[in-house]
């Protein structure tokens, strides 16, 4: 059984920064990632608010560079899903589908996954006009009319990106006030390809082989109507990727990991960084900062063990 100083679970900004710090501190480090490095940022088009890149940097590019930087100092990256963590006398056992690893400390950095609307037609038409990733699927909608659901930063940022392909992007929001930052609101409202439908939810996604339209309901008047569209992009927030923890550390009722006022969880030697942590600001730069903090905390824990 391979034994290391630090196991990091999750390869987004928080996990990759933690890996960079622990590896540079000469702590043997395995980082587990179930998909591709970068986490949510790898699915983002242009990152404009990470300091040092005045022109912005593409999400996949910064993800790959972060991975390269962690590997350069010795992080072992394994593309495997962690299924369980157990406390042992000397530390922790980390189980994946095919192997078990031992570690003295754990950094939880699995982030969160996009939320679904859970309405009729959504599952059936995913990949057939229903999408949760503009960077992945935007190009399929060249010359088409699409709708975007949500009123936060993701909905507006991705909606703006989708105007590169679509002839019209209709943003459907359940209230008449956006949650998104002022700069994105300004850009979206002044983009001639973007229209808004307020106080409205989607009740149903219609289409046999592909999306043909959506059934809308105005939450103030109760009125419903059919809306023709070629595609629907859903950006309504995220839920924490913490089901594998199965009560191993304390979480809130939604599954966000509880920490003290920094990165320590309820279990000594286990730290949490980034969007999995209750209270995280959910910004890339903050996730990286928390990754650094978790790495330093793991180092201190090992030094005093
Ligand atoms: P978010 O801020 O939680 O916004 C989710 C949006 O979806 C809200 O407008 C919400 O409506 C709506 N919504 C939630 N559940 C819904 C449902 N069942 N049906 C219809 N609408 C629903 O999520 P996000 O936009 O993904 O952003 C997540 C975090 O990442 C935020 O902290 C954000 O600042 C950050 N982020 C930052 C950037 C950037 O800085 N450029 C880009 C992307 C994301 P209500 O407003 O009514 O609640």
CATH topology name of the largest domain = FAD/NAD(P)-binding domain
Can you tell me the overall shape? elongated
Flag low-confidence runs.
none
Return the domain count. Answer: 2
CATH superfamily of the largest domain: FAD/NAD(P)-binding domain
Query: Strand count, sense and closure of the main sheet?
Result: 7 strands, mixed
Number of helices: 6
The average pLDDT score comes to 96
Overall helicity? 10-25%
Question: If you compute it from the alpha carbons, what radius of gyration comes out, rounded to the nearest whole angstrom?
Answer: 21 Å
N-C termini distance: 21 Å
Q: What is the number of E strands?
A: 19
Question: What kind of oligomer do you see?
Answer: single chain
Element pattern in H and E: EHEEEHEEEEEEHEHEHEEEEEEEH
Helix/strand class: alpha/beta
What is the topological layout?
Blueprint: E1 3-9, H1 13-24, E2 29-32, E3 46-47, E4 57-58, H2 59-72, E5 76-78, E6 82-87, E7 92-96, E8 100-108, E9 112-114, E10 130-131, H3 134-137, E11 145-149, H4 153-162, E12 168-172, H5 182-189, E13 194-197, E14 200-206, E15 213-218, E16 224-228, E17 231-234, E18 238-240, E19 270-272, H6 284-303
Parallel strand pairs: 1-2, 1-8, 2-5, 8-19, 10-17, 11-12, 11-17, 12-13
Antiparallel strand pairs: 3-4, 6-7, 7-8, 9-18, 14-15, 15-16
Helix pairs in contact: 1-2, 1-6, 4-5
NADP nicotinamide-adenine-dinucleotide phosphate binds next to helix 4.
Describe the protein:
- With 305 residues, the chain is α/β, with parallel strands linked by helices.
- The protein folds into two domains: 3-113 and 238-303, FAD/NAD(P)-binding domain, CATH 3.50.50.60; 116-234, FAD/NAD(P)-binding domain, CATH 3.50.50.
- Helices cover 22% and strands 28% of the residues.
- It contains six helices and 19 strands.
- It has helices at 13-24, 59-72, 134-137, 153-162, 182-189, 284-303, and strands spanning 3-9, 29-32, 46-47, 57-58, 76-78, 82-87, 92-96, 100-108, 112-114, 130-131, 145-149, 168-172, 194-197, 200-206, 213-218, 224-228, 231-234, 238-240, 270-272.
- Strands 1, 2, 5, 6, 7, 8 and 19 form a seven-stranded mixed sheet that branches.
- Helix 4 links the parallel strand 11 (145-149) and strand 12.
- The longest helix has 20 residues, at 284-303.
- It is elongated and about 65 Å long.
- The model has no long low-confidence stretch (mean pLDDT 96).
- The structure holds NADP nicotinamide-adenine-dinucleotide phosphate.
